[in-house]
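tokens incoming
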């Protein structure tokens, strides 16, 4: 469907016969009015039901006459393989009901979200995506939604062969909460950190082959603070750049080894919710230990 607001245009797709339509948060977040145009030419007013800025997902709703709504089946994005056919549908540059075809170029990408967070498991495709495609479905050859077209990398703002889609697994995970509660709560560690690399590990007296998430700082009264996680206690100059070092290094969760901050975020996003208690494996001053950690809920974007 074509989505028009007082701030611009975008795309969306029908989720159910109750009138729920899924789109990107950035299509509707500042809108004071929302209208949906269907392929039949029918135009209906819509209301915002829920949104999640952290995954750039939103749900709007229309009151539609019987027979107008044709929900799409939602597929399983975790089963995608590179090289599969991908079909993008949307309204690029306001050209309604445009279809482009390509392949799944990569899976497991990450994309910047608000507040310095990332969206995980993002799908990369070379099916042409342009301004106005945002919120439209990315389909497989069975007609199942495997993603939601969201962004491109381009120096000109026009398609350059690299487009990104929010995975359908994210839609499946969040949709009930967005409809029922108007929001989705993400698990939250309450730290800032970065990947440990060899020179940094050596500066901390660790083996250069040590991998994990170095905790740079701990947010006061956050989950990590309550769990006793320790942030950086020193600095080191590495190749002329100052790094905070000396904090705990998170190397695993629930017995699973995690080599990077991204892998940690992927695990928490896929497998946990706020209030869950997980066991983190950390290195503290060269000692390996396990810490029980109760996850918090990520604060709303400021």
């Amino acid at each position: 469907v074509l989505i028009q607001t007082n701030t611009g245009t975008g795309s969306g797709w029908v989720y159910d016969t109750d009138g729920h339509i899924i789109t990107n948060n950035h299509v509707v977040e500042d809108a004071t009015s929302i209208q949906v145009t269907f392929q039949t030419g029918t135009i209906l007013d819509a209301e915002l039901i829920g949104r999640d800025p952290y995954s750039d997902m939103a749900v709007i709703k229309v009151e539609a006459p019987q027979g107008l709504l044709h929900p799409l089946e939602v597929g399983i994005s975790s089963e995608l393989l590179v090289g599969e056919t991908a079909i993008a549908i949307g309204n690029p540059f306001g050209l309604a009901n445009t279809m482009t075809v390509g392949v799944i170029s990569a899976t497991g990408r990450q994309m910047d979200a608000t507040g310095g967070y990332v969206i995980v498991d993002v799908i990369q495709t070379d099916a042409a995506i342009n301004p106005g495609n945002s919120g439209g479905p990315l389909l497989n050859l069975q007609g199942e939604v495997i993603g939601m077209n969201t962004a491109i990398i381009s120096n000109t703002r026009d398609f350059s062969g690299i487009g990104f889609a929010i995975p359908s697994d994210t839609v499946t995970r969040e949709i009930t909460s967005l409809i029922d509660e108007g929001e989705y709560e993400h698990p939250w560690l309450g730290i800032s950190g970065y990947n440990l690399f060899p020179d940094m590990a050596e500066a901390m007296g660790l083996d250069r082959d040590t991998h994990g998430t170095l905790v740079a700082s701990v947010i006061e009264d956050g989950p990590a603070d309550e769990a006793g996680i320790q942030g950086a206690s020193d600095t080191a100059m590495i190749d002329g750049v100052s790094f905070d070092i000396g904090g705990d290094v998170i190397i695993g969760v629930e017995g699973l080894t995690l080599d990077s901050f991204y892998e940690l975020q992927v695990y928490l996003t896929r497998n946990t919710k706020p209030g869950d208690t997980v066991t983190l494996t950390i290195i503290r001053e060269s000692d390996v230990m396990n810490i029980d950690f109760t996850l918090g809920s990520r604060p709303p974007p400021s």
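note: The mean pLDDT is 94.
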